[in-house]
Amino acid sequence: MTATVDTLGSGRELVSAALRDAVARLDPAMRLVVAYHLGWCDPHGNPLDGNGGKAVRPTMALLAAQACGAPAADALPGAVAVELVHNFSLVHDDLMDRDTERRHRTTVWAVWDDATAVLAGDVMLSLAHEVLLDCDSPYAIQAGRVITTATRELIRGQAQDMAFEQRDDVRLPECVDMALGKTGALLAASAEVGAVLAGATPTTAAAMSDYGRHVGLAFQLVDDVLGIWGRPETTGKPVFSDLRAHKKSLPITWTVERGDGAGRRLAAWLVGAPDETTPETELRAIAGLVEDAGARDWALAQARRRIGLAERALDSVPLQDAPCAALRDLARFILDREA
Fold first, then answer.
1. What are the tens digits of pLDDT across the range 141-198?
2. Structural contact between residues 185 and 193, judged by C-beta atoms closer than 8 angstroms
3. CA triplet 11, 13, 15: central angle to 5 degrees?
4. What tens digit of pLDDT does each residue of 197-254 get?
5. Angle formed by the axes of helices 250-258 and 172-179, nearest 10°
6. Rounded Cα–Cα distance for residues 140 and 143 (Å)
7. CB atoms within 10 A of CB 281
8. Got the DSSP string for 128-147?
9. What is the 3-state secondary structure (H, E, C) of 167-189?
């Protein structure tokens, strides 16, 4: 675990300067909002020591390039691009979910307003493509296509997630498909774009994409577990946040689809509209119901299975030993994370 933390720290350090250079292109108003979201400053522009998250996606891009025999620097534009797309999605996600806290800080829309959050997300997405188009790699267009396709898939998954809020008949295969879009697509692109910018063969790039996609679904499964049973002081989100929002997450959908006593009770409870005033005691009882039904164990078992499939994808092509081992460690870190 320590090695993975060090790897993430190294990835964040390498990407940070390039990410700051990219954000410096923005006009002062948007630059402030984006810098705040990334943890670099307070709402007034006063510098902070925040790092803006774990940097899983850019680190994956850099490691993928190294695993394919290229220096990490070759994948730096791709690493910056995936981090910008990821943060575009977070700012918009917070707005759509009306979440007021992320990473232990007030979210963009709650500090400024809805329109500012929309614009901040939009400008990060635009900047991601600009960074790739401006790089001098002969594979820049191909890399840009990877990011563009992943963004479309991410938006598809988010649209499904929103549509699920209005339905009481969401099935588990639909929920998995949603997660593969909302979370899996960008992690798949993170690994693939590193391989593409390294000049890897299509077979190797496809294997990297498979690796990232499986890691992405494992990430979402663990995220859904943390959304119900995670500790707020660690996750940075309110207690039982996903339950309070009546999210049709993977463990929730699995429980309902079983159709037994626990599933029927949970389905009946979900019919009511989300209520911010729902007592914590009620949410705790629902969390206990879902856990007793076996959903927590199921979700973590499925996450472990996906990590196994990710490792098989790495085994299917020739890769450099050390960065390949780091990609394995990164996958296991995602499985064991608490935030």
1. 999 999 999 999 999 999 999 999 888 889 999 999 999 999 999 999 999 999 999 9
2. no
3. 70
4. 999 999 999 999 999 999 999 999 999 999 999 887 777 677 788 898 889 999 999 9
5. 170
6. 5
7. 7
8. HHHHHHHS--TTHHHHHHHH
9. CCCCCHHHHHHHHHHHHHHHHHH
Options 2.60.40.1170, 1.10.600.10, 3.30.70.1050, 1.10.3720.10; CATH of 2-336:
1.10.600.10
Question: What's the Cα-to-Cα distance from 199 to each of 45, 74, 127, 288, 318, rounded to whole Å?
Answer: 40, 9, 23, 50, 14
Which residue type occupies 7?
T
Q: Would you state the structure tokens that stand for residue 8, as one six-digit string?
A: 């993430």
What is the amino acid identity at position 116?
Answer: T
From 237, 252, 234, 243, select the one nearest 285 (Cα to Cα): 243
Q: What is the pTM of this model?
A: 0.93
- Residue matched to tokens 């973590």: 300
